[in-house]
Amino acid sequence: MKKLLSIAVLAALGAVSQAQASVNVNINPDAAGIDPTLSVGTLDWTVGNALSVAARGESVAAGKAYVGQFFTTYAMARLASFNDGNGDPIGGLNLNGVTPATNYEWTFVAGFREQFTAVAAPAGAGTSAFDILGGAASASNFFEIWFDPTPNSSNLTGKGFNDSIKILSGHFTSGDGAFTATQAAGAPAGTPVIGALDEFGPNNYPTINTITGNGSTKGVISVDSYDPLYFLSAPAALTLNFTSQQKLAFDQTNPAACFWTGSAYMGGAGNGTDCANTIGALNGVDGPNLQLQADASNSFNGRVPEPGSLALLGLGFAAFGALRRKVAA
Q1: Whole-number pLDDT of residue 314
Q2: Cβ atoms within 10 Å of 155's Cβ, excluding its own
């Protein structure tokens, strides 16, 4: 009986210590500026860019990728809205505002290692799947949020997403995803639908076409540090859920010329000057890299007791009390 009661106590305490719950975090969007503090459940980013980069001498393009292959994906975007616990927008008032004296922006840059678990048909159409590989924070595994009182991020150039004040940093611990390239009707199996890469406004890359399709990636980010002037009530063991929808072609933002790799800029679609084209004339087929339109969001998790865990904790301590009374008798 004593052994069983002891196990019950340990199980209850263990369940509480491991419980993670979705939490709201009090955020001061501009750190004691004009905007008020918000109780934020989700960070909703605008549509941005992602670039999957092959290892040297390899390619992630159709017909060249293989199961087990490692690659690194880089991404960036500007914040669209702070959302409450129900997912509804709540501000801030001057986020991406039009008044130079008060407006500001939040942006993120990220990099994470991945590995193919499935690849599409050699011609390009079909589904590719991949896992996010965890590990220590590094130049190929990072997630950073930046505050800038003078907004200057540009999806077309891919720059201005990591300047001014870094207010949060972390690294990816796990995740997975998949992308399905669309099969062309009436064509041989595996043949993808091809279109212009840039279908958002004027075509800034008239010499680059792309396969088309849709996908998603989900990951978990362990937060290494954050600025308490902006994140006011974050729990000690804060993690971020990372969800991103991917699409080709680009029809909601411009393809980026450059991407931040954690230490320098490299080319995506390229601008012909400081960032070279690394995706070829047919994105997804020429390679070596693959560029995607990406729409991301983050929610918060904290290592805090959930209601069920609190009840279990109560049962554990009740068992502990019964054990003490039994021993005393």
Answers
A1: 46
A2: 24
